Amino acid sequence: MSLHVIVGAGATGIATAHLLADAGDQVRLVTRSGRGPRRPGIELVAADATDADRLTELTTGARTLFGCAAPAYDRWPALFPPLAAALLAAAERTGAGYVMLGNTYGYGPVDGPITEDRPLAPITVKGRVRAAMWHDALAAHHAGRVRATEVRAADFLGAGAYSLYNLLVAPKILAGAPAAFPGDLDAAHSWAYVGEVARALVAISRDDRAWGRSWHAPSVPLSVRELSRRLVAASAPDTADTADTAEAREPELVRLTAAELAAAGAADPVTAEVVEMLYLYERPCVLDSTSTEQTFALPPGSLDVALAETAAADPGNGRAGLRGEGRTVR
User: What is the distance between the alpha carbons of residues 130 and 265, in angstroms, rounded to a whole number?
Assistant: First the structure.
C-alpha cells in the first residue's frame, strides 16, 4: 500500500483521491479547511500548502505528490507562485514523484490541434504563471532534483467541475432559459471529464515513462452549441422523441461580446480575469490527447458520464468555484 498526497479538493483532486483509495492506497488530502470526502483510505488534513516545511512533513514517505489546487482566479500572479514553489520544494526534499494538474493557458493561441511537443508561448498573465510553474518543475527534473510531470486538461465538465461553461451555460440550459457565452459558439473546443482527468493523473503517476514531460488528459472537441445540445439530451426523459419535443429542446444560446464581458468585469474582479482568456473561445481550441491515450492505454475522452452528472447535479453550484480552494475556472 502506497501513500499519495493530494493538494486541493476540487472535483479533480477528489476524483483522484477516490481512485487511489479504491485501489487500496492511502491518500492524504490537504486543503486549508481540511474538507473532503470522509471514507476509508482518505485522510483529510487542514494545512497551508504554501508552507514548504509543513508540506514536506506531510509528504514524507509518500510515493506521489499531486498538485491539484489553484488559488482564486483573480489572484493567480500573487498566490500561485508560492504554492508552486512549496509543492516543488516538498517533492524535492522527500523524493515523491511530482504530478502537476495543468491546463492549456501556457500555449497561447494555436492554429490546429495542440500536441504536447508545442513550445509554450503564453500571451496572458495567467498563461505566463502556468508556464513558469512548468518550466521551474522541468528544470528541477533535468537537474536530477525531482521527478516531475504535468497533465494538462481542457475545460472541465462533470458534477462539481468548475469551468466557464458550467458557470455561464449549464445552469441556464438545464433550466430551459437562454444562455450567453463568450466567443464563437460554433468553434471546436476541447472538454475534459474530471473523472477521466483523474484516471490520467493516476495512470501517469504510476509509469516511469511519464516523468520529464507533459501529457494531455483525454478530451472531446465539440462546439459550445453542440455540447449544449448534448447536455439537453442528457437531461431529457427517456421517451420517444417527436418533432415538437426535439425542436423544443434546442438550447437557446447567444454570444456574449468582449465589450459585454468587460462591462461585467468592471463590477466583479473574477469576471474581469476572463477577458484576457477570450482567445481560447474565439477560435478553435483542440487539445490532441493521442499520445496519452496510446502510451497509457487510456480510452479516448467521452462526455456521456460528464453530461449525465452535470444534468443531475445542482445547477446553482458553479459560481462558488471561482473563489474556492483547490478550484479554478477553466
Answer: 22
For 123-153, the pLDDT digits (tens) are 999 999 999 999 999 999 999 999 999 999 9
Q: Is residue 73 included in any domain, yes or no?
A: yes
Model pLDDT for residues 260-275, shown as the tens digit of each residue:
999 999 999 999 999 9
For the chain, what is the domain count?
1
Domain contains 297 = no
Q: What is the domain-level CATH number for residue 61?
A: 3.40.50.720
Q: Which three cell numbers stand for residue 228?
A: 449544449
Residue-by-residue DSSP string for 210-239: GTTSEEEPP-EEE-HHHHHHHHHHHHS-SS
pTM of the model: 0.92
d(CA 121, CA 23): 38
Asked if residue 281 is part of any domain, the answer here is: no
The Cα 27–Cα 39 span in angstroms is 10
Order across the sheet with 97-102: list the strands.
42-46, 26-31, 3-7, 64-67, 97-102, 148-152, 214-216
Q: Which three cell numbers stand for residue 116?
A: 504536447
